[in-house]
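Internal tracking record. Fields below are filled automatically when a chain is submitted to the structure queue. Please do not edit lines marked as system-generated. If the sequence contains nonstandard residues, flag them in the REMARKS field before resubmitting.
Queue: standard
Priority: normal
Entity type: single polypeptide chain
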Amino acid sequence: MPRMAAGCVIVLLWVGSAGAQDVRWRPDYSAARKEAAATGKPLLLDFGSESCLWCRKLDATTFRDRAIVELVNEKFVPVKVDGERDQRLAQSVGVEAFPTLAIVTAEGRIVARHEGYADVPKMMSLLRQAPAAAKESPKPAAKSAAGDLLAVARADHEAGRYLACVQKCDRVAVSFAGSVEAGEARKLSATIAADPVKWKRVTEQLESDFLSVKADLAAALKR
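SYSTEM-GENERATED OUTPUT FOLLOWS
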């Protein structure tokens, strides 16, 4: 009996120790981004899928290393992303294979990226590419500006104002280059360009605007 009790104690200690070394993954990207904005910490996005063997190996080895776990939990807001379910986010970050790791600031700027399995030295090297990002002050105004402009562009798209949508998407892509919103804006603009009906509306709106400007100019010259 005493031996069995001792064995149970050892098992319980091992389980408690293992739990203490877990990366505290956030499951919700939107909530994690708000946390990053509030703390100034960069996001560590881990894109994978349920069928990804190397993703499971990454979780079972590198993300069990004490030094990696402590660094990630202290300096980052780690997020698990199912790349097959959240394809829009995966595409905006440029994910082409699983696993893909991306370090992204609270403002949506991609700092570093690694595709494929990463052992402890490779992971440490990746994480160390974001020391400045971990110290950055949050800039909610810039983040809000990009998100707000993209939201207006989407509203224009839903209302059939495709030219206005494309123009706003271009502004997001230029003004917030490298951000997640910029990737989403380019994708939205591309869907309009690829749709003959929508693109025809763009050209019609351009022509209408041109004729309106031409009429205003002619009226001004007659004064």
